[in-house]
Amino acid sequence: MFKKFLIGLAMVAVVCALARAGYEFGQHLAQRDQAKVAAAAAQP
Fold first, then answer.
1. CA dist., res. 3 & res. 17, Å (int)
2. What radius of gyration, in Å, describes the C-alpha atoms of the chain?
3. Which of 3, 25, 40, 41: CA 20 to 30 A from 18?
4. pLDDT of 44 over the 80 cut
5. What is the pTM of this model?
6. pLDDT in tens, 4-30
7. Cα–Cα distance for residue pair 44/33, rounded to 1 Å
């Protein structure tokens, strides 16, 4: 019983880590897209 609890807790930690990584990657992509738009707007 305790082993199942530990496995479940580990799975929750893995899912949370993946969600955080995906969120940060999405922020990175948004910043990159915003930089491209700003660079294109600055060109004559």
1. 21
2. 19
3. 3
4. no
5. 0.71
6. 999 999 999 999 999 999 999 999 999
7. 19
